[in-house]
Amino acid sequence: MNQYEIFRDPYRMLILLATLVSEKQHEPALQFDNVPYFENDLFLIQRDKFFYKKDATEITWFEFLGRDIACNKDLSREAYNKMFVDCLASLYNIA
């Protein structure tokens, strides 16, 4: 499987998404070595993986969020931004 580096901005959006998932699940704070499990119809996030179901985009990391982070697709910043905005909206059931 091909692995592509991701830009810093999408990485920050992934951290924001993981932080909001933690808050939604009443976790004290995001732990980068223990990203909480969450899944809905659009995406899955867990300890070492994010999966966007709409187009099968998978972002993985090793041991803690940000270490050896890679994506299975070579996406543009715009594509990452659209994906994460879509996920954030789905987290709060915003159409």
TrEMBL record:
Organism domain of life: Bacteria
Protein name as annotated: Uncharacterized protein
Organism of derivation: Paenibacillus roseopurpureus
